[in-house]
Amino acid sequence: MKNYRWIFIISGLVINLCLGSIYSYSVLQIHLKKFFENVYGLKISATEMQIPFLLSLALFSFSMPLAGRLIERFSPRKVSIVGAIFLGSGWFLASFAKSPLELAILYGIIVGLGVGIIYNCPLSVVTRWFIQNRGLAIGLTVLGFGLSPALLSPIIDLLVYTYGLQKSLKLIGVTLFLVVLTFSYFLRFPDKNESQNVNQFQEVGGISTSQMLKKHSFYGLWICFFTMNFIGLIAIGISKPMGLEVARNCGIPEQEISNTLTLFMIPFALSNGIGRPLFGFLTDKFKPKTTATLSFLSILVAIGLIYFNDSSLLAYGISFSIFWMNLGGWMAIAPTTTSMFFGLKNYSSNYGVVFTAYGVGAILGNLTVGIVKDITGSFINVFPILSILIIMAIIIVQLYLNFNFTK
Fold this sequence. Notes:
The chain is an all-alpha fold.
């Protein structure tokens, strides 16, 4: 029985590989921008190209609370299948977009809903099958989300150069739908006998969402999660454009460096993937407060590295690997902390509310970086803002991210 439950982690990992396609937008937007400009003669700003990504992340986040309640009511399998329809349809319909506005509707809203509906399904399953070492189990499950861009980013380039942008989007949409549909059938909660047999599901207690909202620890967790998403999703959204900016500072033209920068997505995505089980394990071992502090301090180092070395591709590679790793890490820290602080009884609903920090961070972060780029002409000028947010988050961690059910 204990060996059998690993099928839930494997299924969740594969599903997350598909959901993580949303993080390939940094590469996808380069092709989309050129397509809109060359085919339809549009002149598109950096902010306009961020809107579809922003919407997809926002819908991902804000659909989570509703999806959490549906999981408890209808089962993770059924909810995941519904999400697969949205996910595949969004990518497929994106092929018909003729402007960033249409892309925001066809891709941003529909794909974002699909990811948000599905995301909590494997997490809710794994937290019930693995009570001990839940951080590591959650980290391994969401590992696929982080690794996805390493696989899909080169595939996007290859498909677009081979079949063209529109046909590639259709192929990706159909493939994602079929894969998620297949692995959704493995998602289920343990019944009472199975819970006893695996000797892990010992305590199903917990507090309601309304009770959670009265606790200081919830707001501490939410603010910290928001800060990481604000910074991490900026980094993911501008990874390739920032690389092009650094290359220009080095005197390297875009046509010479573009393909190489796409390959940078591989170590970035690997860092994001590794960060999930790593920080999940650290949260199990050292508890959320210590792990969160370590995460934010490493982010502060990365900000300084890229800001003071904006003409170094090495500094760019190291700093953005740290950004990607920590964003991935918080995808394990946040759900693990939610289950530790507020219990498992209403975990799906509670984590759905915590996850709204992801959407708010996505909206404000991507709007901020787009505005800074349009006003100053450079992405590098956003990093002093990020350093202030990190310092504030470190203070919040020390004050409120404590394992205390009475606060």
